[in-house]
Amino acid sequence: MTEIAIDELATRLGDVAILDVRSAHEYAGSAGAPCDPRQGHIPGARHLDVSRLMELDAGEIRAELGLELGSEVVAYCHSGSRSATATQILRAVGYDARNYAGSWHEWSRHEHLPIEP
User: Fold this and answer.
1) Residue 89 lies in a domain
2) At 11, which CATH number?
């Protein structure tokens, strides 16, 4: 599985589609793991909970994301597990998907990196 590191992702904000597959509350910053110093999501990230993603067929996923087949998509969650599953699904339906394994657990610890509430 193809992964992306924090440094590359930080330089590609606005250049790559980012998909947050956590819960709606985690995405909104109203709930999250207490071990994370900041709550919210990576700027520009779309949201689609991995449990919902697993319920959709290929056409529904494409419609939900609104991205052309072959588009590069980076998935993340809290610690890389849910996003690994999402990455496999996205690759299976025709996207060039990569997993950000460090996910929110890593991103939230770097004060210089932007977040959206």
Assistant:
1) yes
2) 3.40.250.10
